[in-house]
Design brief:
This protein folds into 4 domains: 75 residues, no CATH class; 131 residues, Ribosomal Protein S5, domain 2 (2-Layer Sandwich); 156 residues, no CATH class; 99 residues, Immunoglobulin-like, CATH 2.60.40.10. It contains 9 helices and 21 strands. The strands form 5 sheets. A 9-stranded mixed sheet has the order 8-7-9-6-5-15-16-12-10, with helices on one face. The protein has a 5-stranded mixed sheet with strand order 11-18-17-13-14, with no helix packed on it. Strands 19-21-20 form a 3-stranded mixed sheet. About 8% of the residues have low confidence.
């Protein structure tokens, strides 16, 4: 013990670490801690970004002082208020219009509020690395799911995989549920039924989100609008290959040749900004009559409202939503987007065909004199078998002839192949060794992006100067495409058994490993003789 009016432990001007007096408070000195990699840079850069992600809703702001010698920067001090505050302050410059969007998951009667952030192209790097979904408790991140989640077959948002961050607030989970969801280290998720139940609801929520679907299609159009070309050269090449090797035909799905993978007319148009009310004046059910639902399906109903998109999960006076069937609260998923709230509900167990279920929904907040109450009925119908769609297959258009039958599929369903040069690598996470990136374009089919600046391709062009460069490029492009397409069809069966698999990531990795041998194999095998 000692007597003093203050302690000279507060930082002074750079690079003095301890100078100014501290008259009251708590001081904690950390010893033997390790910082590695890019986190060693000036404190206001990588370390600041990482801590913002780990403490997205920190209770009080934290002031950082860089006082290590040898560092330079515009400012040697910075205040961290957490990811949520940071994104809110920077939303106009970094987030797409109308985001963040709010949703609510209902897991066995426990509600998890979700915030969906969609970044403008190239704006997400300083906010996250590989994280796609973060799970927080009392403002602190306790685990995450990789952004490869958005490339899953059930989600189909490959074009947004580097632009989405979802924050799931688990603060309201019961103690036992938290123990089941998070590892004891509180830095990653457990692998159990609760986690997979949350993932399934997130898959459905994200894949059905109208704002994300529209943004994904717009990103696709913007990404390839300058690459669009007639698919006839590819068609001619494939037809020649198939004539020589009919086994190749088994790779392709019967279907119609797409005339145009998308409509360019909307490219460049800005998304209209939705201006919702902080506290809505209406939350009205859009349903006439009785809702019909097969016994093996979920049902959806929609509400019209003037609530802001973040109404249900903002920090200040958020809205609340409940669904009741009789005296029981019902598990549901609700997402709010630009004046419409879409509710997805599984049917309860132990019901029978023909049952009439009567539901009551309540939406309210602390400012409402009366909650918004709605009532609707659901009729349980016989089971409907799901029609499994083969990967790549699309419905044939209606016949122009009279009658009620559809056209029979014919010909080959042509995918889209796009060449990528080095200046566009950042769009596909390419490097020198990358070869192919496959993205799911939804109804427009699959897009195959080939790295035309692959180091092995460039080396082959340089080494064989007697052969036209374009010929070597085409050999590489079509060969790597065929390998990728075969892998896509093969991996699709695995994805049906395990929806957690990101088949596009696997194709990306396998084709990169095969890229060194593609061109030598084509060249040397063609020179083999009977001798």
């Amino acid at each position: 013990m000692f007597s003093s009016n203050s302690l000279p432990i507060l930082p002074g001007d750079y690079p003095t670490a301890y100078q100014n007096g501290m008259e009251w408070g708590t001081y904690i000195k950390l010893y033997n801690y390790q910082i590695s990699g890019s986190l060693k840079s000036i404190v206001s850069f990588d370390l600041y970004d990482r801590l913002c992600l780990l403490l997205p809703k920190i209770a009080l702001p934290v002031r950082f002082y860089e006082r290590r010698e040898g560092y330079r920067g515009h400012s040697m001090e910075s205040t961290m208020a957490g990811l949520s505050v940071r994104l809110d302050e920077d939303r106009n410059s970094n987030l797409e219009a109308n985001f963040p969007s709010s949703s609510v998951l209902n897991i066995s009667g426990e509600k998890l509020a979700c915030q969906i952030f969609a970044f403008k192209p190239g704006k997400s790097e300083k906010y996250m690395k590989d994280e796609g979904i973060i799970f927080t408790v009392n403002g602190q991140t306790h685990g995450n799911i990789s952004k490869s989640f958005f490339g899953r077959k059930a989600v189909k948002l490959s074009y947004l995989s580097n632009s989405i961050l979802i924050a799931v607030d688990c603060s309201n989970l019961k103690g036992r549920s938290r123990e089941d969801l998070f590892m004891n280290s509180r830095d990653r998720l457990s692998t159990n039924d609760l986690r997979y139940q949350i993932e399934r609801q997130l898959e459905e929520l994200i894949s059905k989100h109208p704002g994300l679907k529209a943004l994904s299609e717009r990103r696709r159009r913007e990404e390839i609008q300058n690459k669009f070309e007639d698919s006839k050269p590819l068609k001619d090449v494939l037809e020649k290959l198939i004539k020589k090797s009919p086994e190749l035909a088994s790779l392709f799905i019967p279907g119609y040749k797409l005339k145009n993978p998308f409509d360019f007319r909307d490219v460049g148009q800005q998304q209209q900004v939705w201006v919702g009310e902080e506290f809505p004046t209406f939350f009205k059910l859009k349903l006439d009559g009785v809702k019909q639902c097969p016994i093996n399906h979920k049902f959806r109903v929609q509400y019209e409202t003037n609530a802001a998109n973040d109404y249900f999960d903002r920090d200040r006076l958020p809205g609340k939503f409940e669904l009741h069937l009789g005296d029981e609260k019902v598990e549901n998923v609700l997402h709010l987007w630009n004046g419409f709230a879409t509710l997805t509900v599984p049917l309860p167990e132990n019901i029978s065909i023909g049952n009439l279920l009567e539901y009551k929904s309540i939406a309210t907040d602390e400012t409402q004199f009366r909650p918004f109450e709605s009532y609707f009925k659901v009729r349980v119908l016989p089971e409907v078998k799901d029609q499994k769609t083969i990967i790549g297959q699309r419905k044939a258009p209606p016949s122009t002839l009279d009658g009620n039958e559809r056209k029979s599929p014919s010909g080959l369903s042509m995918p889209h192949i796009w060449e990528v040069n080095k200046n566009e690598w950042f769009l596909h996470q390419f490097n020198d060794h990358s070869a192919l990136n496959v993205k799911d374009g939804g109804d427009a089919g699959y897009d195959f992006y080939v790295n035309m600046d692959n180091i092995y391709l460039l080396s082959e062009i340089k080494r064989k100067s007697d052969i036209a460069a374009r010929l070597i490029q085409n050999r590489f492009k079509y060969a790597i495409f065929l390998i990728g397409f075969a892998l896509l069809k093969d991996k699709a069966a695995e994805a049906k058994e395990n929806s957690n698999k990101n088949i596009f990531k696997e194709i990306f990795e396998v084709t990169a490993k095969l890229s060194p041998i593609i061109l030598p194999m084509i060249s040397y095998l063609s020179e083999l003789t009977d001798e």
